[in-house]
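Sanity check

After download, print the first record. It should look like this:
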Amino acid sequence: MTTREQRRQPKQNNFGEGPVWKCIVIQAIPLTLAQLVSLLYNVVDRIYLGHLGEADSMALTGVGLTFPIISLIMAFTALFGNGGVPLFAMARGRDDKEEARRIMGNSFGLLVLTSFALMAVGYVFCKPILYLFGASDASYVYAAEYLRIYLLGTAFTMISVGMNGFINAQGFPKIGMYTTIIGAVLNIGLDPLFIFVLDMGVGGAALATVLSQAVSAIWVLGFLTGSKTPIRLQWDSVRLSKRTTSKILKLGSANFIVHGSNCLVQVLCNVTLQTFGGDLYVGIMTVLNAIREITVLPIFGLVNGGQPVISYNYGAGNGERVKSGIKFFSLLGILYTLVAWLAIIAFPAFWFHVFTDDVQMLASGGKALQVYFFGFIFMALQFAGQSTFQAVGDAKHSIFFSTLRKVIIVVPLTILLPRLGFGVMGVFLAEPISNVIGGTACYTTMWRTVYRRLGREET
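Expected C-alpha coordinates:
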Protein backbone atom coordinates (compact mmCIF):
# COMPACT_ATOMS: atom_id res chain seq x y z
CA MET A 1 0.00 0.00 0.00
CA THR A 2 1.40 3.43 -0.96
CA THR A 3 1.76 6.32 1.48
CA ARG A 4 -1.07 8.17 -0.28
CA GLU A 5 -3.38 5.16 0.02
CA GLN A 6 -2.53 4.82 3.71
CA ARG A 7 -3.48 8.45 4.30
CA ARG A 8 -6.81 7.85 2.58
CA GLN A 9 -7.65 4.95 4.88
CA PRO A 10 -10.01 5.91 7.75
CA LYS A 11 -8.08 6.15 11.01
CA GLN A 12 -8.67 3.11 13.20
CA ASN A 13 -8.29 3.10 16.99
CA ASN A 14 -6.47 0.24 18.74
CA PHE A 15 -8.36 -0.41 21.98
CA GLY A 16 -5.54 -2.53 23.41
CA GLU A 17 -2.88 0.19 23.40
CA GLY A 18 -2.40 3.57 25.05
CA PRO A 19 -4.23 5.03 28.07
CA VAL A 20 -7.71 3.55 28.45
CA TRP A 21 -9.27 6.93 29.18
CA LYS A 22 -7.87 8.24 25.90
CA CYS A 23 -9.32 5.30 23.96
CA ILE A 24 -12.72 5.98 25.52
CA VAL A 25 -12.58 9.73 24.86
CA ILE A 26 -11.54 9.19 21.24
CA GLN A 27 -14.58 6.97 20.85
CA ALA A 28 -16.95 9.02 23.00
CA ILE A 29 -16.46 12.49 21.50
CA PRO A 30 -17.52 11.67 17.95
CA LEU A 31 -20.22 9.32 19.25
CA THR A 32 -21.63 12.06 21.46
CA LEU A 33 -21.52 14.59 18.64
CA ALA A 34 -23.19 12.08 16.36
CA GLN A 35 -25.91 11.37 18.90
CA LEU A 36 -26.36 15.09 19.51
CA VAL A 37 -26.92 15.62 15.84
CA SER A 38 -29.13 12.53 15.75
CA LEU A 39 -31.36 14.05 18.41
CA LEU A 40 -32.10 16.85 16.00
CA TYR A 41 -34.14 14.38 13.94
CA ASN A 42 -36.92 14.47 16.51
CA VAL A 43 -36.05 17.44 18.71
CA VAL A 44 -36.06 19.90 15.82
CA ASP A 45 -39.42 18.49 14.77
CA ARG A 46 -40.77 19.18 18.25
CA ILE A 47 -39.32 22.68 18.35
CA TYR A 48 -40.91 23.62 15.03
CA LEU A 49 -44.24 21.96 15.82
CA GLY A 50 -44.33 23.49 19.30
CA HIS A 51 -44.24 26.94 17.74
CA LEU A 52 -46.89 26.34 15.10
CA GLY A 53 -49.57 27.80 17.36
CA GLU A 54 -52.13 25.26 16.19
CA ALA A 55 -54.91 24.39 18.65
CA ASP A 56 -52.86 25.26 21.75
CA SER A 57 -49.87 23.10 20.79
CA MET A 58 -52.07 20.15 19.86
CA ALA A 59 -49.61 19.22 17.10
CA LEU A 60 -46.87 18.79 19.71
CA THR A 61 -49.18 16.67 21.85
CA GLY A 62 -50.12 14.50 18.87
CA VAL A 63 -46.50 13.80 17.97
CA GLY A 64 -45.83 12.94 21.61
CA LEU A 65 -48.42 10.18 21.38
CA THR A 66 -46.32 8.42 18.72
CA PHE A 67 -43.25 8.18 20.98
CA PRO A 68 -44.19 4.80 22.50
CA ILE A 69 -44.35 3.32 18.99
CA ILE A 70 -41.04 4.90 18.04
CA SER A 71 -39.57 3.57 21.30
CA LEU A 72 -40.78 0.09 20.37
CA ILE A 73 -39.02 0.35 17.01
CA MET A 74 -35.88 1.47 18.82
CA ALA A 75 -36.27 -1.45 21.23
CA PHE A 76 -36.03 -3.97 18.40
CA THR A 77 -33.18 -1.97 16.87
CA ALA A 78 -31.29 -2.17 20.16
CA LEU A 79 -32.13 -5.85 20.55
CA PHE A 80 -30.42 -6.83 17.31
CA GLY A 81 -27.91 -3.99 16.97
CA ASN A 82 -26.65 -3.55 20.53
CA GLY A 83 -27.01 -7.28 21.08
CA GLY A 84 -24.62 -8.00 18.23
CA VAL A 85 -22.03 -5.24 18.69
CA PRO A 86 -20.47 -6.47 21.99
CA LEU A 87 -20.26 -10.01 20.57
CA PHE A 88 -18.67 -8.56 17.44
CA ALA A 89 -16.15 -6.54 19.52
CA MET A 90 -15.21 -9.55 21.67
CA ALA A 91 -14.67 -11.64 18.52
CA ARG A 92 -12.36 -8.91 17.22
CA GLY A 93 -10.48 -8.99 20.52
CA ARG A 94 -9.91 -12.72 19.97
CA ASP A 95 -8.90 -11.96 16.36
CA ASP A 96 -11.73 -14.18 15.09
CA LYS A 97 -12.72 -12.18 12.02
CA GLU A 98 -14.97 -14.82 10.49
CA GLU A 99 -17.05 -15.10 13.65
CA ALA A 100 -17.27 -11.30 13.82
CA ARG A 101 -18.47 -11.19 10.20
CA ARG A 102 -21.14 -13.82 10.89
CA ILE A 103 -22.41 -11.90 13.89
CA MET A 104 -22.69 -8.68 11.87
CA GLY A 105 -24.51 -10.39 9.00
CA ASN A 106 -26.90 -12.09 11.39
CA SER A 107 -27.73 -8.78 13.08
CA PHE A 108 -28.38 -7.13 9.73
CA GLY A 109 -30.79 -9.86 8.67
CA LEU A 110 -32.73 -9.61 11.91
CA LEU A 111 -32.99 -5.81 11.61
CA VAL A 112 -34.34 -5.91 8.05
CA LEU A 113 -36.92 -8.64 8.64
CA THR A 114 -38.21 -7.06 11.82
CA SER A 115 -38.49 -3.60 10.27
CA PHE A 116 -41.00 -4.79 7.67
CA ALA A 117 -43.00 -6.69 10.28
CA LEU A 118 -43.23 -3.63 12.54
CA MET A 119 -44.24 -1.37 9.65
CA ALA A 120 -47.05 -3.74 8.66
CA VAL A 121 -48.39 -4.03 12.22
CA GLY A 122 -48.23 -0.26 12.66
CA TYR A 123 -50.33 0.41 9.59
CA VAL A 124 -52.96 -2.22 10.36
CA PHE A 125 -53.48 -1.19 13.98
CA CYS A 126 -52.64 2.54 13.81
CA LYS A 127 -55.97 3.91 15.08
CA PRO A 128 -56.66 1.53 17.99
CA ILE A 129 -53.05 1.76 19.15
CA LEU A 130 -53.04 5.56 19.28
CA TYR A 131 -56.33 5.71 21.20
CA LEU A 132 -55.06 3.02 23.56
CA PHE A 133 -51.93 5.12 24.10
CA GLY A 134 -53.91 8.14 25.29
CA ALA A 135 -55.04 10.00 22.15
CA SER A 136 -58.12 12.19 22.23
CA ASP A 137 -60.23 12.97 19.18
CA ALA A 138 -58.36 16.26 18.81
CA SER A 139 -54.82 14.89 19.16
CA TYR A 140 -55.41 11.72 17.12
CA VAL A 141 -55.53 13.68 13.86
CA TYR A 142 -51.97 14.94 14.33
CA ALA A 143 -50.64 11.65 15.74
CA ALA A 144 -51.98 9.56 12.86
CA GLU A 145 -50.68 11.98 10.23
CA TYR A 146 -47.18 11.81 11.68
CA LEU A 147 -47.11 8.08 12.33
CA ARG A 148 -48.33 6.88 8.94
CA ILE A 149 -45.49 8.69 7.20
CA TYR A 150 -42.87 7.84 9.83
CA LEU A 151 -43.59 4.11 9.50
CA LEU A 152 -42.52 4.20 5.85
CA GLY A 153 -38.95 4.72 7.02
CA THR A 154 -38.86 1.93 9.60
CA ALA A 155 -36.23 -0.09 7.68
CA PHE A 156 -34.06 3.00 7.15
CA THR A 157 -34.19 3.85 10.85
CA MET A 158 -33.34 0.36 12.04
CA ILE A 159 -30.49 -0.09 9.59
CA SER A 160 -28.86 3.30 10.17
CA VAL A 161 -29.07 3.07 13.97
CA GLY A 162 -28.63 -0.67 14.43
CA MET A 163 -25.71 -1.17 12.04
CA ASN A 164 -23.83 2.01 12.92
CA GLY A 165 -22.51 0.33 16.06
CA PHE A 166 -20.52 -2.10 13.91
CA ILE A 167 -18.65 0.86 12.44
CA ASN A 168 -17.81 2.23 15.89
CA ALA A 169 -16.84 -1.23 17.18
CA GLN A 170 -14.15 -1.45 14.48
CA GLY A 171 -12.52 1.73 15.73
CA PHE A 172 -14.01 4.26 13.28
CA PRO A 173 -16.03 6.61 15.50
CA LYS A 174 -15.70 9.53 13.07
CA ILE A 175 -17.28 7.50 10.28
CA GLY A 176 -20.06 6.56 12.70
CA MET A 177 -20.46 10.22 13.56
CA TYR A 178 -20.94 11.10 9.90
CA THR A 179 -23.83 8.63 9.74
CA THR A 180 -25.99 10.81 11.91
CA ILE A 181 -24.52 14.17 10.93
CA ILE A 182 -25.37 13.67 7.25
CA GLY A 183 -28.94 12.64 7.97
CA ALA A 184 -29.56 15.19 10.69
CA VAL A 185 -28.26 18.13 8.66
CA LEU A 186 -30.56 17.06 5.86
CA ASN A 187 -33.45 16.80 8.33
CA ILE A 188 -32.79 20.27 9.70
CA GLY A 189 -32.92 21.69 6.19
CA LEU A 190 -36.01 19.77 5.10
CA ASP A 191 -38.07 20.44 8.24
CA PRO A 192 -38.77 24.14 7.66
CA LEU A 193 -39.20 23.51 3.93
CA PHE A 194 -41.84 20.83 4.39
CA ILE A 195 -43.51 22.19 7.55
CA PHE A 196 -43.73 25.88 6.70
CA VAL A 197 -42.87 26.56 3.05
CA LEU A 198 -44.89 23.66 1.63
CA ASP A 199 -47.39 23.94 4.52
CA MET A 200 -47.31 20.20 5.26
CA GLY A 201 -47.32 20.64 9.05
CA VAL A 202 -46.95 17.43 11.06
CA GLY A 203 -46.74 15.31 7.92
CA GLY A 204 -43.83 17.41 6.67
CA ALA A 205 -41.90 16.78 9.86
CA ALA A 206 -42.37 13.03 9.45
CA LEU A 207 -41.39 13.08 5.77
CA ALA A 208 -38.20 15.01 6.53
CA THR A 209 -37.26 12.37 9.11
CA VAL A 210 -37.89 9.48 6.71
CA LEU A 211 -35.78 10.97 3.91
CA SER A 212 -32.97 11.81 6.31
CA GLN A 213 -32.87 8.31 7.77
CA ALA A 214 -32.80 6.86 4.25
CA VAL A 215 -29.64 8.80 3.45
CA SER A 216 -28.06 7.69 6.75
CA ALA A 217 -28.85 4.05 6.02
CA ILE A 218 -27.23 4.29 2.59
CA TRP A 219 -24.12 5.80 4.17
CA VAL A 220 -23.84 3.01 6.77
CA LEU A 221 -24.24 0.23 4.22
CA GLY A 222 -21.83 1.95 1.85
CA PHE A 223 -19.07 1.96 4.45
CA LEU A 224 -19.70 -1.51 5.90
CA THR A 225 -19.63 -3.09 2.43
CA GLY A 226 -16.71 -0.97 1.19
CA SER A 227 -13.14 -2.08 0.62
CA LYS A 228 -11.71 0.18 3.35
CA THR A 229 -13.57 -1.63 6.14
CA PRO A 230 -11.49 -4.29 7.96
CA ILE A 231 -14.46 -6.58 8.62
CA ARG A 232 -17.00 -6.04 5.84
CA LEU A 233 -20.68 -6.82 5.66
CA GLN A 234 -20.85 -9.44 2.93
CA TRP A 235 -24.14 -10.62 1.54
CA ASP A 236 -23.22 -14.30 1.90
CA SER A 237 -22.89 -13.70 5.66
CA VAL A 238 -26.43 -12.27 5.95
CA ARG A 239 -27.87 -15.49 7.32
CA LEU A 240 -29.90 -16.24 10.42
CA SER A 241 -28.06 -18.78 12.53
CA LYS A 242 -29.99 -20.19 15.47
CA ARG A 243 -26.86 -20.23 17.61
CA THR A 244 -25.78 -16.68 16.76
CA THR A 245 -29.31 -15.30 16.97
CA SER A 246 -29.67 -16.82 20.43
CA LYS A 247 -26.50 -15.07 21.61
CA ILE A 248 -27.61 -11.75 20.11
CA LEU A 249 -31.05 -12.00 21.70
CA LYS A 250 -29.58 -12.91 25.07
CA LEU A 251 -27.16 -9.99 25.19
CA GLY A 252 -29.47 -7.51 23.46
CA SER A 253 -32.40 -8.28 25.75
CA ALA A 254 -31.24 -5.70 28.28
CA ASN A 255 -31.34 -2.92 25.69
CA PHE A 256 -34.66 -4.21 24.41
CA ILE A 257 -36.07 -4.02 27.92
CA VAL A 258 -34.72 -0.49 28.37
CA HIS A 259 -36.41 0.78 25.21
CA GLY A 260 -39.42 -1.51 25.56
CA SER A 261 -39.99 -0.37 29.13
CA ASN A 262 -39.71 3.22 27.88
CA CYS A 263 -42.56 2.38 25.54
CA LEU A 264 -44.60 0.96 28.42
CA VAL A 265 -43.85 3.90 30.69
CA GLN A 266 -44.68 6.44 27.98
CA VAL A 267 -48.02 4.75 27.38
CA LEU A 268 -48.85 4.71 31.09
CA CYS A 269 -47.73 8.32 31.49
CA ASN A 270 -49.83 9.51 28.55
CA VAL A 271 -52.92 7.60 29.67
CA THR A 272 -52.57 8.72 33.30
CA LEU A 273 -51.84 12.33 32.36
CA GLN A 274 -54.81 12.32 29.99
CA THR A 275 -56.99 11.12 32.88
CA PHE A 276 -55.73 13.55 35.51
CA GLY A 277 -54.69 16.55 33.41
CA GLY A 278 -55.84 16.20 29.79
CA ASP A 279 -54.00 17.02 26.56
CA LEU A 280 -52.08 19.85 28.22
CA TYR A 281 -50.03 17.49 30.40
CA VAL A 282 -49.50 14.99 27.61
CA GLY A 283 -47.88 17.88 25.74
CA ILE A 284 -45.81 18.78 28.81
CA MET A 285 -44.52 15.22 29.00
CA THR A 286 -43.55 15.47 25.33
CA VAL A 287 -41.34 18.45 26.16
CA LEU A 288 -39.88 16.74 29.24
CA ASN A 289 -38.91 13.72 27.15
CA ALA A 290 -37.15 16.00 24.67
CA ILE A 291 -35.19 17.76 27.42
CA ARG A 292 -34.30 14.42 28.98
CA GLU A 293 -33.01 13.11 25.65
CA ILE A 294 -30.75 16.14 25.34
CA THR A 295 -29.37 15.99 28.88
CA VAL A 296 -28.64 12.24 28.97
CA LEU A 297 -26.87 12.37 25.62
CA PRO A 298 -23.32 13.16 26.86
CA ILE A 299 -23.38 10.40 29.50
CA PHE A 300 -24.93 8.03 26.98
CA GLY A 301 -22.18 8.86 24.48
CA LEU A 302 -19.53 8.39 27.16
CA VAL A 303 -20.60 4.89 28.19
CA ASN A 304 -21.27 3.88 24.58
CA GLY A 305 -17.78 5.06 23.70
CA GLY A 306 -16.38 3.03 26.57
CA GLN A 307 -18.36 -0.12 25.82
CA PRO A 308 -16.38 -1.39 22.78
CA VAL A 309 -13.14 -0.55 24.61
CA ILE A 310 -14.27 -2.58 27.62
CA SER A 311 -15.51 -5.46 25.43
CA TYR A 312 -12.30 -5.58 23.42
CA ASN A 313 -10.03 -5.68 26.46
CA TYR A 314 -12.30 -8.12 28.27
CA GLY A 315 -12.16 -10.42 25.23
CA ALA A 316 -8.36 -10.02 25.19
CA GLY A 317 -8.15 -10.94 28.90
CA ASN A 318 -6.76 -7.55 30.03
CA GLY A 319 -8.65 -6.99 33.29
CA GLU A 320 -6.62 -3.98 34.44
CA ARG A 321 -7.65 -1.97 31.37
CA VAL A 322 -11.28 -2.97 31.92
CA LYS A 323 -11.14 -1.67 35.51
CA SER A 324 -9.56 1.61 34.39
CA GLY A 325 -12.28 2.13 31.83
CA ILE A 326 -15.05 1.52 34.35
CA LYS A 327 -13.59 4.01 36.83
CA PHE A 328 -13.07 6.66 34.18
CA PHE A 329 -16.56 6.80 32.70
CA SER A 330 -18.13 6.41 36.16
CA LEU A 331 -16.42 9.47 37.63
CA LEU A 332 -16.84 11.63 34.54
CA GLY A 333 -20.50 10.62 34.27
CA ILE A 334 -21.22 11.61 37.88
CA LEU A 335 -19.59 15.01 37.39
CA TYR A 336 -21.55 15.72 34.21
CA THR A 337 -24.95 14.70 35.57
CA LEU A 338 -24.44 16.88 38.64
CA VAL A 339 -23.76 19.95 36.48
CA ALA A 340 -26.69 19.17 34.15
CA TRP A 341 -29.07 18.69 37.07
CA LEU A 342 -28.12 22.04 38.62
CA ALA A 343 -28.64 23.80 35.28
CA ILE A 344 -32.14 22.35 34.90
CA ILE A 345 -33.21 23.05 38.47
CA ALA A 346 -31.96 26.64 38.29
CA PHE A 347 -33.42 27.57 34.88
CA PRO A 348 -36.56 25.48 34.19
CA ALA A 349 -38.35 28.20 32.23
CA PHE A 350 -35.47 28.55 29.76
CA TRP A 351 -35.52 24.87 28.83
CA PHE A 352 -39.26 24.76 28.43
CA HIS A 353 -39.49 27.92 26.35
CA VAL A 354 -37.23 26.39 23.69
CA PHE A 355 -40.04 24.00 22.74
CA THR A 356 -43.21 26.03 23.05
CA ASP A 357 -44.79 29.46 23.35
CA ASP A 358 -48.01 28.05 24.77
CA VAL A 359 -48.80 30.06 27.93
CA GLN A 360 -50.50 27.19 29.75
CA MET A 361 -47.66 24.77 29.06
CA LEU A 362 -45.06 27.29 30.21
CA ALA A 363 -46.98 27.98 33.42
CA SER A 364 -47.45 24.34 34.40
CA GLY A 365 -44.34 22.80 32.87
CA GLY A 366 -41.63 24.46 35.01
CA LYS A 367 -42.62 22.72 38.25
CA ALA A 368 -43.07 19.40 36.45
CA LEU A 369 -39.56 19.73 35.00
CA GLN A 370 -37.96 20.32 38.41
CA VAL A 371 -39.73 17.33 39.93
CA TYR A 372 -38.97 15.04 36.99
CA PHE A 373 -35.21 15.76 37.05
CA PHE A 374 -34.68 15.63 40.80
CA GLY A 375 -31.93 13.09 41.50
CA PHE A 376 -30.72 13.11 37.89
CA ILE A 377 -27.17 12.39 39.08
CA PHE A 378 -28.12 8.77 39.78
CA MET A 379 -28.61 8.23 36.05
CA ALA A 380 -24.81 8.18 35.74
CA LEU A 381 -24.70 5.15 38.03
CA GLN A 382 -27.42 3.38 36.05
CA PHE A 383 -25.71 3.99 32.70
CA ALA A 384 -22.23 3.01 33.95
CA GLY A 385 -23.40 -0.19 35.61
CA GLN A 386 -25.69 -1.19 32.76
CA SER A 387 -23.06 -0.55 30.09
CA THR A 388 -20.42 -2.53 31.99
CA PHE A 389 -22.67 -5.56 32.38
CA GLN A 390 -23.41 -5.54 28.68
CA ALA A 391 -19.80 -4.94 27.65
CA VAL A 392 -18.58 -8.05 29.50
CA GLY A 393 -21.50 -10.19 28.31
CA ASP A 394 -23.27 -10.40 31.69
CA ALA A 395 -26.77 -10.63 30.25
CA LYS A 396 -28.37 -11.81 33.50
CA HIS A 397 -27.58 -8.69 35.52
CA SER A 398 -28.05 -6.39 32.56
CA ILE A 399 -31.58 -7.65 31.96
CA PHE A 400 -32.50 -7.56 35.65
CA PHE A 401 -31.48 -3.96 36.24
CA SER A 402 -33.13 -2.84 33.02
CA THR A 403 -36.33 -4.37 34.32
CA LEU A 404 -35.91 -3.07 37.87
CA ARG A 405 -35.79 0.66 37.18
CA LYS A 406 -38.54 0.99 34.59
CA VAL A 407 -40.86 -1.96 35.01
CA ILE A 408 -40.65 -2.84 38.71
CA ILE A 409 -40.32 0.72 40.06
CA VAL A 410 -41.65 3.28 37.54
CA VAL A 411 -44.72 1.42 36.31
CA PRO A 412 -46.35 0.85 39.73
CA LEU A 413 -45.47 4.36 40.91
CA THR A 414 -46.94 5.91 37.76
CA ILE A 415 -50.20 4.10 38.45
CA LEU A 416 -50.34 4.57 42.24
CA LEU A 417 -48.91 8.02 43.05
CA PRO A 418 -51.52 10.06 41.10
CA ARG A 419 -54.26 8.09 42.88
CA LEU A 420 -52.70 8.64 46.32
CA GLY A 421 -53.24 12.38 46.19
CA PHE A 422 -50.26 13.55 44.08
CA GLY A 423 -52.34 14.00 40.90
CA VAL A 424 -50.37 14.71 37.73
CA MET A 425 -47.22 15.41 39.77
CA GLY A 426 -47.24 11.77 40.83
CA VAL A 427 -46.43 10.81 37.23
CA PHE A 428 -43.39 13.10 37.18
CA LEU A 429 -42.28 12.01 40.66
CA ALA A 430 -41.97 8.35 39.65
CA GLU A 431 -38.87 9.08 37.53
CA PRO A 432 -36.53 10.48 40.23
CA ILE A 433 -37.53 7.75 42.70
CA SER A 434 -36.61 5.10 40.14
CA ASN A 435 -33.32 6.84 39.36
CA VAL A 436 -32.20 6.80 43.00
CA ILE A 437 -33.19 3.21 43.74
CA GLY A 438 -32.36 1.66 40.37
CA GLY A 439 -29.12 3.54 39.75
CA THR A 440 -27.70 2.80 43.21
CA ALA A 441 -28.63 -0.89 43.07
CA CYS A 442 -27.25 -1.36 39.55
CA TYR A 443 -23.89 0.27 40.18
CA THR A 444 -23.36 -1.33 43.57
CA THR A 445 -23.97 -4.79 42.12
CA MET A 446 -21.66 -4.13 39.16
CA TRP A 447 -18.89 -2.98 41.51
CA ARG A 448 -19.25 -6.00 43.80
CA THR A 449 -19.40 -8.53 40.98
CA VAL A 450 -17.64 -7.45 37.78
CA TYR A 451 -15.09 -4.98 39.18
CA ARG A 452 -14.05 -7.01 42.23
CA ARG A 453 -13.91 -10.19 40.19
CA LEU A 454 -11.44 -8.56 37.84
CA GLY A 455 -9.35 -7.54 40.82
CA ARG A 456 -9.27 -11.09 42.20
CA GLU A 457 -8.38 -12.52 38.79
CA GLU A 458 -5.42 -10.17 38.51
CA THR A 459 -4.24 -11.13 42.01
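If your output differs, re-run the checksum step. Summary of this record's structure: Residues 1-11 have pLDDT under 50 and may be disordered.
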